[in-house]
Write a structure and sequence with these properties.
Elements lengths: L13 E6 H14 L4 E5 L1 H5 L3 H10 L4 E4 L2 H9 L5 E4 L8 H6 L3 E4 L2 H13 L6 E6 L13 H15 L3 E7 L11 H20 L5 E3 L3 H6 L7 E4 L24 E6 L2 E5 L4 E2 L5 E2 L4 E6 L16 E4 L2 E6 L7 E4 L10 E5 L9 H8 L3 H6 L7 E4 L6
Parallel strand pairs: 1-19, 2-3, 2-9, 3-4, 4-5, 5-6, 6-7, 7-8
Antiparallel strand pairs: 1-10, 10-18, 11-14, 12-13, 14-17, 15-16, 15-18, 16-17
Helix pairs in contact: 1-3, 7-8
This protein binds pyridoxal-5'-phosphate.
């Protein structure tokens, strides 16, 4: 669980401000980009670090008909908190809470016979005895989860239809996931679409009548209309972040970053030239200067790989992390400026105040922006703004 925010008047060491109006606007923008499809807001991993419950509620308000999570525990928590509508989860392990999932009316994903066997057994033990909603996942080329085409798919589809005819399950969806949708034009994209159509056709010929067929994640939703089918599963774009620089910038699609990460400068001090800075002395002051202490570190999710490269805006100027990022803090060279202690240091945000973005941090750390927002730790309170929907 993330910390709850202290009252707004209390000064905060660090905060991740979550703009729910931006999130709702992103959901509406994505729905307009995929007008023929329903939208699933993917809120796994605490909504990519933004806070699952407030984000799920805002997404539903903005018209997301579905919520998606990786684990059943994440999905059950949404249902327990009263989230209505369709909730799907796809990352199951043997013994997983199938009965609880069926009783909570979740859509569960099945990639192989072991999972179908477990969910049918659980569905027969539920108190409600309503058919379990089961979605069959096809591996169309990602090479991760999902059922292989050919004999494996034929066996899974056949067994699922059998269980459906017995009234134990309802096959609600046929679905798959892309490997390289964030590299528009990658040849695997067309190959996966072709394979998906074949696997769906086979299942439908056998008698499956899915409510939804779906394969599009954020990059495919943004760049590939023929991949939209009945439902698009958008994660990163809901949070206003582009899946990759190749796909474009958030602004190219009318998306706005939802998270702004900032901290209060804890100390400003004057030091002579030649002074080593932080563990290992990987930075030495080139001359007399001022140093600022920013009180967040790798325990808060600031990537240590961004030591010496991560950007932060203080007093309207971009500064770079000087030396190593430590567990709880890092230092910047303020070049002689003396902003007061308590000055806001903005690590990343939407970018329209001139601050760095999560993408800038991804580049500095040699990773993707998904990881930058998702890894922000539980010690950083999430502060929600624009919680009330206006108009
Ligand atoms: C995480 C995930 C998504 C969302 O991906 P984005 O690129 O963030 O839109 C969609 N589908 C599955 C199966 C996922 O695991």
């Amino acid at each position: 669980m993330t910390e709850t925010a202290p009252p707004p008047t209390a000064p905060l060491r660090a905060r991740a401000e979550i703009d729910l109006a931006a999130l709702r606007a992103n959901v509406r923008t994505l729905r307009a980009l995929a007008p023929g499809a329903q939208l699933m807001a993917v809120v796994k991993s605490d909504a990519y670090g933004h806070g699952a419950l407030p984000c799920a509620r805002a997404a539903v308000e903005a018209g997301a008909a579905w919520l998606g999570t990786a684990t059943p525990e994440e999905a059950l928590a949404l249902r327990a908190a009263g989230l209505p509508g369709r909730i799907m989860c796809w990352l199951w392990t043997p013994g997983g809470p199938w009965r609880e999932a069926v009783e909570a009316d979740l859509d569960v994903s099945v990639s192989g016979m072991w999972a179908l066997d477990e969910v049918t057994a659980a569905a027969q033990q539920t108190r409600t005895r309503t058919p379990a909603r089961v979605q069959l996942k096809a591996d169309t080329g990602l090479g991760r989860g999902g059922c292989q085409p050919g004999d494996d798919w034929a066996e899974l589809v056949g067994a699922a239809l059998h269980a459906e005819r017995d009234g134990i399950i309802r096959i609600t969806g046929l679905w798959s996931h892309f490997a390289c949708a964030d590299e528009p034009g990658h040849p695997s994209i067309d190959a996966q679409l072709t394979r998906f159509r074949e696997m769906v056709s086979y299942a439908e010929e056998q008698g499956v009548r899915p409510e939804v067929r779906h394969i599009a994640n954020s990059p495919a939703t943004l760049t590939l209309p023929e991949s939209h089918f009945d439902l698009v599963r958008t994660g990163i774009a809901v949070y206003g972040i582009s899946p990759s620089p190749e796909v474009g910038t958030p602004a190219d699609f009318g998306l706005r970053p939802v998270m702004t990460l900032s901290a209060s400068v804890a100390l400003v001090k004057r030091v002579p030239g030649g002074h080593g800075v932080s563990y290992g002395h990987h930075y030495t002051t080139p001359g007399e200067t001022t140093l600022g202490l920013v009180p967040v570190g790798y325990a808060d999710g600031i990537p240590r790989h961004a030591s010496g490269t991560g950007p932060v805006m203080i007093g309207g100027k971009w500064r770079t992390v000087a030396g190593r990022i430590a567990m709880d803090q890092f230092v910047v060279d303020l070049g002689g400026d003396e902003p007061g202690t308590g000055t806001e240091a903005v690590l990343f945000g939407p970018g329209d105040r001139g601050e760095p973005t999560a993408e800038d941090w991804a580049q500095a750390a040699g990773t993707i922006a998904y990881e930058i927002v998702t890894r922000i730790g539980t010690r950083v309170p999430r502060v929600y703004v624009n919680e009330e929907q206006v108009g």
